[in-house]
Design a protein that fits this description.
22% helix; alpha+beta; 455 residues; seven-stranded mixed β-sheet; four-stranded antiparallel β-sheet; globular
Amino acid sequence: MDWPDTNCKEKPEHFECNCTRDWLHVNRQTCLAGDVAHARKKLEIQLQNPDYQQFVEYMCPDIKNLGSGHRDLSLCARPIVGTWDDHDYNWQDGDKRLPNKEQQKKLYLDAFGVPSNSPRREKDRGIYWKHTLNEGTKGKEIDVFLLDERFHRDNKPCETRREFCEKVAVPDPKKYKHAWCKDFIFGGADGKGSCCRKDEQIWAGWCKENSQLGDDLWEAACDPTSETYGFPGLEIDISSGGPIRAGPNSNTTHGEGVLCEVIGVNQRAWLQDELRKSEAPLKLIVSGSPVFNNPEEFVCSKALKRRPSVNCTCFDDYDCYRPAQLNLLHNLAQAPGCVVVLTGDFHFSDIKVLQPGSQKYSGAYDSFHLPRAIYQIMASGLTTDTAQHAPCDGYRIDKAGFRPEGECAFVSGPAFGMIEIDWDTPEQLAKLQIRDEFGVVTLESTLRLDKCTPV
């Protein structure tokens, strides 16, 4: 929703392409980030699109019976549910700092017809939710967890972009990320950078000190596999730099917690509780960002005569937020039943599996002792606007070994994901599929729901 309606390269003087560059509006193409009026106009156009209306009529043939105005699409015969990622949120790579995010939330929920009394509309709350398919049909339920990974998301941790910003973007005002990086390194309330420092302070700092191992808060502050990890009320003591149970007069970071968050402390607690209670054989985790992708550093700026190449540790996914990522992965793997993550964002499609045991990525993801595998289907782009045909190179290569069919087993170009379940077989087989724009199956993995193992 945040892209302009004109090509700013061709018409750089257009009013939609002119703004002061800052952390929100990093260049001409992002001048409309956070502009709710523009987002509303684009959303209204989409809702009136004949192809979209045809889709809704197919999914919801009884839509006229759902009342007038904003109809709740989750009540359709074929329910339509969803969550947002950055561009739906109205800010590319956006986080919790988005101005007018409550207005943007209302706009988005209105489009899905979410009732006015839904908890999703509560102030200061993201749009996370659980929807159950086949509800009431014992043994065939599917719990769909819609995560909100923008509303409560911290800015990227300092270590993920410090070198890039200091050596590449800040010295050169012409760089795309120049203004964003200046704020990242030198902005924020204290002028020491808006980047999230908590993972460096606690995860990579306090937790690594041998003297802290016996501290009664060590598990809650340092062990992402623990049920108590990052619990509400645990904050960073400004004086000592360590964790503390916050009190009314304590000198702390005031509600910021002890880790760089993606979904926030309240949503983490909600998800952990709902996963534990769920009796559904299959749990679908709808995540705007890939939950696991690439655990290794990569070159994000090539070498020049005046400096060597610069590495980055992540794109805009969970790999940037390693403690939060580990906590999520272990919560998913500990949940009863089988877990499949549904994601997008990267403009191509694939199927990945994070396996327990000794793997290339075991150390990075602390996955050796996971009780079961976690499956991830990424279907990213139904049109050539977002999913263009591309070769197997760069970040499209799976060097970590997640893809069952090989490092180049992905689909470029328009595609979508599908899950077909045969409930009548003893194994309850689930086929995880990527289909191309013509509906042809191009990638497929089959999962036994009775054991959460591949076939």
